[in-house]
Every structure is written in structure tokens, then in C-alpha cells.
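Issue 218. Parser rejects a valid record. Input:
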Amino acid sequence: MLFRLAEPYLSVRNDLLHTQVAHQYCLRLLSAEGGDQRIVEPAVILHDVGWSKLPPEQLKIAFGIRAGGPEARRLNRIHEVEGAVIAGRLLQTLNYDPGLIEQITEMIERHDSGKHPESLEEKMLKDADKLWRYSGVGFRQEVERQGVGRHEMVRFLERLLSALFTPTALLLAEEELKTRAREIGTT
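Output the parser choked on:
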């Protein structure tokens, strides 16, 4: 039900597939690390709905390997803040627990910009979001969407390993990275 409610907001950047893959990683992280599924799952499903508030021409400025600078940070913050508002409204329509809504929306509001996660659930949200790029489909889509070479993407993902928070996410990312490197002939 939540995916159906989120889908219109995820169509702007074609993020439905990203969200589905991140959700699958989220379930694996929950299984291995523990955490509150009532918080992590909705947060992962709704974390990027805020991109729907930005014009398509601004999207490439705001994210990706080459994104940076004050304008990228400003646009990224818009997607986080607006995403938290949208997520709150969607969860309220489902009569979700108000205390959980508050935790979920706070996590969404800092899922990219916050450097110090305040809970295991927030760590898993951040990790599931990043793990998308390591997946086969995520890797291929990000290479195309960002207009970067496969070798450049592998180097970026190698550096991104240090930004993962949970042992399980690090293990999954390393396994996926080895597979991507084999696929493009760098090992």
C-alpha cells in the first residue's frame, strides 16, 4: 500500500526501481542487524519522494558523483525537507502511529545531509539508500543517468564504502563491488 501511495512522487526521477532495490536491501539489513521494521521500511520507501518538488532540469545538479557545491547542497536539502513533509502526510493517511511518523520524517529530513545517524534505524536507511548503487541494476542505471564511465563508478563506489554504517551493509557492498568489477573486467 505504501509503495502505491509513494509511486507518483517517485516517478519524477524514475526512483521507483531505486526504492524497490533499496527496500530489498533494507529487509536484508533488518534481518541481520535487527532494528524496528515499523520505522526503517516506511523510511526507505518514502526517503526520496521529495525529489518530486524539484524541476527535472535541477535534478542532475543535486545528486551523483559530480554533484557538489552550495547549489547541490541546497537542492538536496529541498528534497529532504519536502520529502519529510510528504512522507508525514502519506503516513497520516494510513493512520500510522504519530510517534513513529515523527521518527521516520526526522530520518528522511537528514538521510543524505546528516553525517551522524542517531539510531540503528537511521543507519539502515542511509545504508539501504547507498547500496542501490552497488546492485547490478543500480550500477548500470547510475552510470547511464550520471553520464559516467563504469570504471569511474567503480572507483566512486570503492570510496563510498567508508560511508556505510552497518557491518552487513559493508559486507553486501563489498560483495556487489567485486561482482561489478568482474563484470567490467577490472579484477
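Fixed in the parser; the record now loads. The longest helix spans residues 69-93.
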